[in-house]
Amino acid sequence: MLAFQKNSETLIVVLHEIYGINEHITQVCQELAEEGYDVICPDLLDGKPYFDYAREEEAYLYFMNYVGFESAAKRVTFLLRQEELKYKRIVLLGFSAGATIAWLCGVDSVKTDEGFYYGGSLVKCSGLICYYGSRIRDYTDVTLQCPALLFYPEEEPSFSPQELQAELEKLDRAEVHILSGRHGFADPYSPHYHEVSAREAKKIMKEFMEKRIVT
Fold first, then answer.
1. 67-121 pLDDT, tens per residue?
2. Whole-model pTM above 0.90?
3. What 3 state SS string does 92-141 have?
4. Alpha carbon of 12 to those of 9, 32, 59, 143, 201: distances in Å?
């Protein structure tokens, strides 16, 4: 687990993609710490070396077989319960698979395939920031327990971001932005990196933190 302590009243929990805690996730954590936030990033791969992007299929199979969205959400919920008394605010920031895990932890009354319920009624959660969480589309019949900011690219091979945006914006507290590029546009180490969209997303995220969370 990565951890940065800045004696902040706000903790940001960063949730990684299927690849694990790689250079991009480490950089995100470091940048947030430089902004003065306490940051932790749990290792959902349990010490297994992170996968490089060329091993996407292998990383996906490992994640689905040995981690799983719902099991990971249980683990993160347990982590939040350990941390919630230490902080005034806790924000979940997830990328791809991590975004879906964050979503499961920040909504209420979600029935999962495993039969468990997760959600904001169980843990202290002040906000969600979700980058291209594709499987969030499987969990749209929910109630948000905190403000949620979601980013999607214009292009996704398996679903329409525009249709998902329309569905999610029916929820109270959900704010959805579709930016130019493809899945991974915010990751400077990804072949799909889109510098303009990455900068725009950071600007929107900063405004969201300042106006909706740290007020």
1. 999 889 889 988 998 898 899 999 999 999 999 999 999 887 665 555 555 555 5
2. yes
3. EEEECHHHHHHHHHHEECEECCCCCEECCCCCCCCEEEEECCHHHHHCCC
4. 10, 8, 25, 22, 17
